[in-house]
Amino acid sequence: MRLTKEEIVALLADEAGEEVLFRQADEVRKEFVGDAVHLRGLIEFSNICRNDCLYCGIRRSNKKVCRYRLEPEALIETARRAAAAGFKTLVMQSGEDLYYTPERLCPVIEKIKKFDVAVTLSLGERSYADYKAFREAGADRYLMRIETTDKDLYHRLDPGMSWQRRYECLLELKELGYELGSGIMTGLPGQCLASIAEDLLFLQKLGIDMAGIGPFIPHAETPLVREAGGTLGLALRTMAVMRLLLPDINIPATTAMETLHPGGRLKALQAGANVVMLNVTEKCYSRLYALYPGKTGGGAAETGRDELGEQLETLGRCIGAGYGSRKQNPVC
Ligand code: 5AD
User: Fold this and answer.
1) What is the CA(217)–ligand 1 centre distance, in A?
2) Best of 52, 53, 56 to mutate for ligand 1, by most ligand atoms within 8 A of CB?
3) Beta partners for 46?
């Protein structure tokens, strides 16, 4: 659907009318991607990060975080267990930890691909050569949020990083044939509705395959501790408008939505979302991967899956049986 920036701002601002927007996004979701909810198993394999983003709990300057990194064998074992529990997509996420060079990571990707799963990487900014090597090793998808398209805000929140380089990374990933996921945070300090509208138009133009949208949640050990943070309402409205703009993409009910408001995930699934990521990282590690306080999940691969299945049934929805890539969506 085509919407102007002004129309998007009006939708984002309209708290009173949000149920109408949610219903419309839910109908578009049903028509274009069906009732299946695709599950992803999230493996947080390293919280070591070279970056210092002001909002993020695992930023380099946070000395209170106990740092960990799963070695290749442990990473493969976690993936094996998640695949055995039925996950058809595994998301391998880490801080920007350069220990995992192509020499170390490619053999891991090759082994995990043998478990008959789609592999999504979320490792941040790398060189074109690295992205190419990971793709050739079998990685199918890549997730990297642009966070905001307001360049001044980006450079203030992500010191030492370049918005332009991040954008180029997204273009390179697309060119290499990855299914591309990106997205933003809502409720960042200094971010206005017009800026979010521009973000949405940017993501539409880029033609992403997946859009993750979550509220910013202040973390105590970061410089943004005293900021207000985002609301569930604005994050949901942003997500719903994304569904209208890109009707056939994958849109997760994000963990940050559930963290901010128990039940946020179910609300999101009724306002345009068709994907859920469940944390399959061992609890002793996932609790150290605190991007924001209260982040849910972690533990045995099965937990959360059955509970979600039951919740979905009450909505007349079901867990997707396939890999859940864009365009293959309607399988239940
Ligand atoms: N609140 C909400 N989301 C956050 N992220 C990082 N820190 C926070 C926070 N404090 C998001 C970013 C990043 C993704 C992995 O987590 O958008 O891309």
Assistant:
1) 8
2) 56
3) 69, 94
Which residue reads 């740092």 in tokens? 67
**How much distance in Å is there from the Cα of 114 to the middle of ligand 1?**
31
At 206-254, the pLDDT tens digits run 999 999 999 999 999 999 999 999 999 999 999 999 999 999 999 999 9
Task: Indicate whether residue 256 lines ligand 1 (CB < 6 A).
Answer: yes
Backbone angles phi, psi at 285, to 5 degrees: -95, -45
pLDDT of res. 100:
97
Residue nearest to atom 16 of ligand 1 (CA): 291
Tens digits of residue pLDDT in 7-30:
999 999 999 999 999 999 999 999
Which of 125, 199, 216 for a ligand 1 pocket mutation test, highest count of atoms within 8 Å of Cβ?
A: 216
pLDDT over 70, % of the chain: 96
Say yes or no: CB of residue 211 within 6 Å of ligand 1: no
214 ligand 1 Cβ < 6 A? yes
Question: Ligand 1: does its nearest atom lie under 6 Å from the Cβ of 289?
Answer: no
How many angstroms separate the alpha carbon of residue 31 from the centre of ligand 1?
30
Q: How far is the CA of 207 from the centre of ligand 1 (A)?
A: 22
Q: Is 217 in the pocket of ligand 1 (CB under 6 A)?
A: yes
